[in-house]
């Protein structure tokens, strides 16, 4: 599905220059943050990739929110509500939040206590295997790259709204260059503080139109009545039950495996800070995007029921009720949603390719060489995904969900189940990752299943079964594997922080 469909309406601002000025000012701020942290991010690879493991709880609440929300939530949940019904959009919001809750309960503590730079390094610690780390790093790199496509698609939509004469395509390129610039300058330090600011902006701007909408339509019931008058199916869902089940499974299990979350967890100052960041973020997420699915998307349905693309629902409200300055602020908030995930994805992609893969292949790169390679990867990743985003394959939330389904299929057994099942071993982890990921890819690209998001209903159980069967059919875990298992479950382990975070027995130095 093309981003700009034929025969529909695309909202535009009334006066470009003022809105553009707001966007330019916003880009200047985030690039300035990158420049501010340039020197600090170069002190070590730990500073560049996980901000030295020193980020506090209050910062992580909004940083987690920003990373989880992304374009897939800010655009996608309301877009799903506009296209498929508000109940479907709310289902997605609850499933995503549930995934965050499960991550808080089952993974945030162990991953942070591991004290490593990346989740593939965490897998190496757990299974004492460079092969497991290599497979995990390859899956992370593929997923991080693919997940950036819908983010840059959203960037192009935003630029097309603020400055239609610029056009969608050039907007995608400008967004990619801007994102890569401040990430390559400031690393995870810059990413953290821009995410903190962007998280606050996203919370405010996601609910900002709601008071005016309620006044305009006469409250919640008036808004829903107007939406139902324009689309009689708006309050429900027009998707089959199997799609509901598939998208619920994908997001509940997939959030645990998202590469941007692993990097964010590892940047926390402690496992407690990581867990509490999730604890406060989850209800905030449900509240803001539940309101977006019903109220903002409902008003957009009433105001403009013939949008060229459902992902433009928020802009339809901005164009209808607000002037160019507020439109520019709204566009900046949506850019914040895009940036907050894209920057973390760029860091995760960079770390996988320039840190994890060389370690597993025993390439002896110095920290300076890793940083140089990492910055090349950031720019290469941003520009290559921008090329794909010029002609994107579907709706933003659809793309993010499909990538997340691949992560759930490939990584959930080894990462989530393996964290708590002592009998798991290296052969089981490798077999599950490869089988789950390939089965999901074959079902998706072979267009076998039919209903949206149903591929994970086959691929995830296959990966889990393979994980258990192969682990039980092969050798017992070695003593080293059991030591790796116990390490991140021990409350007596104090995670290292600062420049040397991640130098942990059995991981990066093996």
Topology record:
Elements: H1 16-36, H2 38-41, H3 45-50, H4 57-74, H5 76-84, H6 86-106, H7 108-114, H8 119-127, H9 130-162, H10 168-207, H11 210-217, H12 219-230, H13 241-254, H14 259-266, H15 271-303, H16 313-321, H17 324-360, H18 367-389, H19 396-420, H20 426-445, H21 455-473, H22 479-487
Helix pairs in contact: 1-10, 1-17, 4-10, 4-15, 4-17, 5-6, 5-15, 6-13, 6-15, 7-15, 8-9, 9-10, 9-17, 9-18, 9-19, 9-20, 10-17, 10-18, 11-12, 11-15, 12-15, 13-19, 14-17, 15-16, 17-18, 19-20, 19-21, 20-21
Number of strands: 0
Provide the succession of SSEs.
Answer: HHHHHHHHHHHHHHHHHHHHHH
CATH topology: Sodium/glucose cotransporter
Distance between the termini: 46 Å
The portion of residues forming beta strands comes to under 5%
Spatial shape = globular
Compute the gyration radius: what is it?
22 Å
Describe the 3D structure:
With 510 residues, the chain is mainly alpha-helical. It has one domain (16-389): Sodium/glucose cotransporter, CATH 1.20.1730. 75% of the residues lie in helices and 0% in strands. It has 22 helices and no strands. Helix 10 packs across helix 17 and helix 12 packs across helix 15 (271-303). The longest helix is centred in the middle third of the chain and has 40 residues, at 168-207. It is globular, with a radius of gyration of 22 Å. Mean pLDDT is 80; it is low at 1-7 and 492-510.
Question: Tags for this entry?
Answer:
disordered N terminus, disordered C terminus, Sodium:Solute_Symporter, 22 helices, symporter activity, membrane, Sodium/glucose cotransporter, single chain, 510 residues, transmembrane, 75% helix, mainly alpha, ion transport, globular
